[in-house]
């Protein structure tokens, strides 16, 4: 028998077969199954009907890509999937509050684990997952998408080369048309930890990732203002978009940018038949019961004095500059505009050069601007023994920073020590 790890077909079990697990990661596995020698062997979902729809979607993608259909076992309890011998790699893409119940036993099982961000909805769960990872000596790989996107990787190289001098300030501007946070399970902190944790943990991870270049150390303090100033409760709000006749800019299907069409699969559309509000994807943004923020302005200070800011909302207009990262060094500045796949660099104190670098990859039109395709390649290598590029330590740090910012907002903008 060959001992070459690349010759073994890796069996993948997906816990949480929704938008992220199926339409993003599952799709990329189905498309690249032959090249990467992966197969999907198991699903787990607390709502059993969601697994039939998920399998139909993935088998049709696999067929289109010339790969065979998957033979998949269905489970309602994550422990049953984890102990299935046909599962080598466990992909956890359930709603954030359900991460710990799957991630802790998965890590302890010794199998390879992919966990999506944010690590968890509370600091307590985040620490428990990180502890299980450390105690089992089984580093997992996490889904901080920007670490797998070509322009962000290119930006990291440019800053590491010293082109803008020593990094001193970082700013993420995220003016996002993401009303869906008020329309899905993300609308309650009890399930999501807050939309800010969901999205903002990407950005705090980006701050930490770039901060490492300049030996920033850890973030030591934060203050923040924010709350809700657009998606404010209305007494006469309808329950769901499906039963509403208002002309509303936030109607489901209207507010997501066209660039991410591949993220709107059959799995998503099928939620229309559910009656439980937490399973719907078209709750009215003005309905009572949401306890998340729709905007925030957050400021961190790092051990070595670097400062980082996040300027964020989820009621932004659709625009190709909805997400930017600006980094300022001692000799220049650099701005990445995510939807354009473009980096604008000023070096040498502005005396000589102003350059615009276009760095869209060939896969830019696929989900998360090509990141999910690359992520699945990284996951496959990780399952065969490569080192994790981003583990639970980074996940804990990213959520620790965001949850502290939420505490600052809840307490009226006080400075919180981290
Ligand atoms: N890395 C990224 O860029 C990115 C993007 C989107 C979502 N996510 C993360 O992926 C996770 C899932 O988000 P989503 O958008 O796919 O949500 P979703 O609602 O589309 O899918 C979640 C699925 O999990 C199922 N589920 C619910 N409770 C479960 C449980 N206890 N065990 C197993 N399955 C359960 C639901 O029925 C649903 O099918 C979240 O943590 C989210 O933050 C990450």
Tell me what you see in this structure.
This protein has 418 residues and is α/β, with parallel strands linked by helices. It folds into 2 domains: 5-144 and 373-388, 3-Layer(aba) Sandwich (Rossmann fold); 147-233 and 289-364 and 397-417, Dihydrodipicolinate Reductase, domain 2 (2-Layer Sandwich). It is 31% helix and 20% strand. It contains 11 helices and 15 strands. The strands form 2 sheets. Strands 14-13-12-11-7-10-9-8-15 form a 9-stranded mixed sheet, covered by helices on one side. Helix 4 links the parallel strand 4 and strand 5. Residues 255-260 have low confidence and may be disordered. The chain binds nicotinamide-adenine-dinucleotide. Residues 15-21, 44-47, 50, 78, 93-96, 98, 116-117, 143, 145, 185, 198, 368 line the site of nicotinamide-adenine-dinucleotide.
